[in-house]
Write a structure and sequence with these properties.
16% strand, alpha+beta, three-stranded antiparallel sheet, globular
Length: 313
């Protein structure tokens, strides 16, 4: 088992022979503790730490961001030992412990069984229509690899790695509005004087099978946060499904939090992230993590693809 208690302190993976099992067990333990926690505030704090890490590493898998959270929740930029040296002229400080994540194993795959040539040769698969050197490459598995956070290194500064946008909220809002078409939605910003939806700051409804979002006009930061929340609803949720409304709201809030933090928008944390998911088992919670990761990645990528919506300097 991994050294240390996942919810109470950083996890370390010391035994090379057992590292793969330790990494799986650490994620399982983290999920188990969230599902079974009697301290809701503590559990929600742990979940929010993962959301913070996810906002820094939106293109990583949810399992890798969970592993980073468990080992170094303050991480912002990670790379391998030699990558820091050779590409960025930085050196890992003496005595620093590696952060272990999963890296894909790429190999030619049998079109039938999906195995690499060596595993295919030892399997019962009878495919022989094309030779192995003509098979397409793909992911055949994963292996633990060590990386280090920038805080564990010293050397030349890395302005080129500052990928989180630091623009003002009005610049972010311009990017959000410009991304609507790429996200497959339509958006109207409605003045407060004619706002027809009561206390709601935003709504997402389908018009001719297209998500249509309305947000109430306010300061740019507030509108941007609301729009991120409604984008999440548009991408995540079937409007005909009215069950688990509170759980759906929490998913949308989590996506907005991740995307907003990624773009430097001040997002209020919520001590109630897990309240609506108290009946979930570990598998269901992990599924929610993947939904949040995938949706926030889509929103972030679509916004970043707009022509200079945000100043990244």
């Amino acid at each position: 088992m991994a050294e240390s208690h996942p919810a109470s302190g950083p996890v370390t993976f010391g035994d090379a022979d057992a590292r793969t099992d330790q990494m799986h067990q650490a994620i399982d333990q983290w999920l188990y503790e969230l599902v079974n926690s009697v301290d809701e505030a503590r559990a929600s704090e742990a979940f929010q730490r993962w959301l913070d890490v996810q906002s820094q590493f939106h293109d990583y898998s949810h399992r890798n961001t969970l592993l980073i959270t468990l080992q170094c929740s303050e991480a912002t930029k990670v790379a391998g030992y030699r990558t820091w040296q050779e590409e960025f002229n930085r050196q890992v400080k003496e005595g620093e412990s590696a952060i272990w994540i999963w890296a894909p194993l790429i190999s030619r795959q049998c079109p039938d069984c999906g195995n690499s040539p060596s595993y295919h040769a030892d399997s019962d698969c009878a495919y022989d229509e094309t030779p192995p050197d003509e098979w397409d490459e793909g992911v055949v598995g994963f292996k633990p690899v060590p990386v280090f956070d920038i805080s564990q290194t010293q050397g030349e500064p890395l302005p080129e790695l500052e990928t989180a946008a630091q623009g003002e909220a009005d610049e972010l809002l311009a990017g959000l509005l410009a991304a609507a078409d790429a996200l497959g939605v339509t958006v109207d910003v409605v003045s407060a004087g004619v706002w027809p939806h009561g206390d709601a700051d935003g709504v997402c409804r389908h018009v001719d099978d297209t998500p249509h979002i309305q947000v109430q006009e306010a300061d740019p930061a507030a509108v941007a946060g609301t729009l991120l929340h409604e984008y999440a609803h548009a991408l995540l949720h079937d409007p005909a499904d009215t069950a688990d409304r509170e759980a759906r709201e929490r998913e949308a809030e989590a996506v907005a939090y991740v995307a907003g933090r990624h773009f430097g928008l001040g997002m209020d944390g919520s001590a109630l992230y897990l309240a609506a998911w108290s009946d979930d088992d570990a598998d269901r919670l992990l599924e929610r993590c993947e939904r949040i990761r995938a949706t926030s990645t889509t929103v972030i990528d679509r916004i970043a693809a707009q022509p200079d919506p945000i100043d990244h300097e």
